[in-house]
Amino acid sequence: MNTLYGFTFMKDGVRYDYPFREMLNCMESLVDKCYVALGENDDGTSAEVEKFSKVEVIPTIWDMSKMGDGGLVFSEQTNIALSKLRENHASEEGAWAIYLQSDEIIHEDDFEQLRKDIDEAERSGCDAIRFRYFHFWMSHYRIAINKRWYPCEIRAVKVNSNVVNHGDAQGFSGFTKVYESDVHIYHYGHVRDAAKREEKQKDLIQRIRPGMKFSKYLNREKRAFAKTKSIPIRVKHSKVMQSRIERMGENYNLSKVSKYYIVGDKDDFPRNIAEKTFISEVIFRESVSEVPFEFRKERMFIVNPTLFERIQWGSCSYVSMESKLSREWKVDTQLMIDLGGKTL
């Protein structure tokens, strides 16, 4: 098995209510050590980060002259952490590094698959791994799907490689071959106290856009956010998110759906699909005709439905995000969206 390390950057995590503690909890369960480029702060972020035993803090000072330069300060800070990680571990054969930003989580249920994907990426000569995304929008049970939301991004890189972070730190460059993983990154940046979210968004735009155009870009962002298309999703969140979700007034454990029929192949779904979707009993059938009529409209999911079946039974019509870069969702994700539309 390949050795895993983590790296990230952050600043003012407490002030802007980032779920950075949850992210670091996730990292500590996944990696041997996590490198954090930690910008100067006066809000208690440093004290919180230092509570994590596997974290090595790299104190940094953000170059404020780069305000409005397209967010390059973010990739600069990311690469400080990545460089330190490489300084210590580049000689280790098969070492990989996981990158999570302060509002991103990998679910513990996906750890096993993640490790398998890293092993496969190593065997196939890849130096980067791209993951799918859930962008939670204003709720822990809605995701944004329109084309301005990136459907996937690189979040794991081979330590002994030329891969570096670039631009506003959203992605990476310098890779030669990318492995496509079905593991999701849970992105919570837009689920927080409204005032904190607005304050954070203003700070972000100030660091990305020229000062004289701040108002223009802020207003444009507000208009874009107002048009965000989102859909409900019935999903089980990571254990590290429970207290935060409950603090924000939402249920961590959703009420159970007593019975749900799936018209499709059982082998296409993970063994824990009932637990993942809060269903007491999942029943697989080969055709709609085998499902009791009273369940067909509200308690049935059809894998690969025909257009007629979608119209007649209200089966999920969303098979991917709307970006041209999207890959089709796996059937378990489509089921979670189908359930969300019928039960949330």
What spatial form do the alpha-carbon principal axes imply?
A: globular
Which structural category fits the helices and strands?
Answer: alpha/beta
Number of domains: 2
**Spatial extent as radius of gyration:** 21 Å
How much strand content do the residues show? 15-25%
The CATH homologous superfamily of the largest domain is termed Spore Coat Polysaccharide Biosynthesis Protein SpsA, Chain A
CATH topology of the largest domain: Spore Coat Polysaccharide Biosynthesis Protein SpsA, Chain A
Mean pLDDT: 92
Strands of the widest sheet, in order across it, are 3-2-1-4-8-6-11-5
In short:
Helices cover 31% and strands 23% of the residues. It is built from ten helices and 15 strands. The model has no long low-confidence stretch (mean pLDDT 92).
